[in-house]
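Components:
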Amino acid sequence: MSLHAYLILAAIVFAIGVFGVITRRNTIGILLGIELMLNAVNINLVAFSRFNGNAAGMVLTVFAIVITVAEVALGLALVILLFRTRRTAIADQIDWLKG
Amino acid sequence: MTLEVAGFWAFAIVLVGSALAVVLSKNLFHSVLWLALALTGTAGIFLLLNAEFLAAVQILLYAGGVVTVVVFAIVVTERLVGATLSQTNRHVVRGGVAAAVVLTLVISWIRRAPDLVKPVLMDGDLTRTIGVTVLTQYTLAFELLAVLLLVSLVGASYFARPEE
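Structure:
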């Protein structure tokens, strides 16, 4: 398969992730959409790395995976904290800063 | 070559199908399980691109670690994840439009760029190359990431600490 096939596949997955982030009500569901988007970026990085013969893209993928794991851990801790103080995980109801 | 094409289509169908199930599933718990399948499909794509190390990392960290953590978070906040509860908000149409616009823009941009047909073979063991590159050229970034991971884990356990 050519480079474009991989890039278009990643674009489709990214668009699905965007849809999930916009439409989900639950904060955890929004996090799942972000996971999909980050995953699409990783596919792009590995594909570019492979087709250009440069290992730096794969190193960058490892870094991106580590950052994603940190983001998920922190995000879920925040969701649990919000649920504990507010008894809700629905993003629309978390509006403390609304004037 | 035909095996590669067949594998690509198989993994692409699994990946796109399970990604759709992640965002469309009515039950959040099912969404997470579909996410595990989508992440495994991505590992398959990595295998097709000869990135065995990344495929292993993907399955260990994502499909193993992240999915487990998300399942725990859902169990803790379970009261609001019943199958009867609507999991989508009123922005479904707007979300579809936004996703379609993103997709069209990205694909039209990709189509304008020159295509590369043949992967460039890298000499030697790719896993070894990745390891050497991380520990020589990108040492500073690697150490910073270690600090970032530590800080975020300490922060996460602080936020999620038991109530006094």
